[in-house]
Amino acid sequence: MGLDNNMVKIVMVAGFRPAKDHATLVKAAASLCAQYNKLQFVLIGDGEWKNSVQHMIPVEISDKVLFLGNREDVEQILLRCDIGVLLNNTRGHAEGLSNSIMEYMAAGLPVVATNAGGTPELVVDGVTGYLVNSFNTDELIQRLKTLINSIDLRNRFGRAGRQRIELDFSLDLMAKKYLALYQELAGSCK
């Protein structure tokens, strides 16, 4: 089973480890797949909790959840997906500026992510995607339903996210900011 172009594909790129919250996504997937026939959940990554998460998948949706493992072609996979999700276990962990979220945005995907750590610095709620409270399955389901039901909203959020990455988080901009900081520090040493 591979990516199905006739389905809305929801992707999460994250290691299967205690810092991530795959359990809330699995609960949401079970509820959403009962309501929508054309959904596919794509989980990319590996780690010590992968088997546990695989065993959480209800049998009735097992054909709608892909476990792709670690991949070298994540960018190409993201370009075939529709919504990027990153959920964190905020009990003892705060995500910094997530590479996964930046990759989703660079690929033009709307993002649904845990409202914690550095994520609000990347995701502008209601503009580039949605921020959800930790472990709140109902809120996650509602936000995903909104995006599933509106290709126009997905496209608008995706364009806004790509633009945000290009304008505020590009490598060129970061290099310029570091250079300005070094020059400022060098000037204060005189």
In words, what does this structure look like?
The chain has eight helices and six strands; from the N terminus they run E-H-E-H-E-H-E-H-E-H-E-H-H-H. It is of the alpha/beta class. It has a single domain, classed as Rossmann fold (3-Layer(aba) Sandwich), CATH 3.40.50.2000. Strands 3-2-1-4-5-6 form a six-stranded parallel beta sheet, sandwiched between helices. Helix 1 (22-35) packs across helix 6 (137-148) and helix 4 crosses helix 7.
Indicate the topology.
Elements: E1 8-13, H1 22-35, E2 39-44, H2 50-56, E3 65-69, H3 74-78, E4 83-86, H4 99-106, E5 111-114, H5 119-122, E6 129-132, H6 137-148, H7 151-168, H8 171-188
Parallel strand pairs: 1-2, 1-4, 2-3, 4-5, 5-6
Helix pairs in contact: 1-6, 4-7
Summarize the structure.
The protein has 190 residues and is of the alpha/beta class. The protein is built from eight helices and six strands, in the order βαβαβαβαβαβααα.
Distance between the termini: 63 Å
Largest sheet: 6 strands, parallel
Top CATH class: Alpha Beta
- What's the multimeric state? single chain
Could you name the CATH topology?
Rossmann fold
Low-pLDDT regions = none
Helix content: 40-55%
Query: Average pLDDT value?
Result: 93
Task: State which percent range the strand residues make up.
Answer: 15-25%
Q: Looking across the biggest beta sheet, what order are the strands in?
A: 3-2-1-4-5-6
- Total strands: 6
Shape field: globular
Query: How many domain regions?
Result: 1
User: CATH H level: which superfamily?
Assistant: Glycogen Phosphorylase B
SS summary, helix count: 8
Structural class: alpha/beta
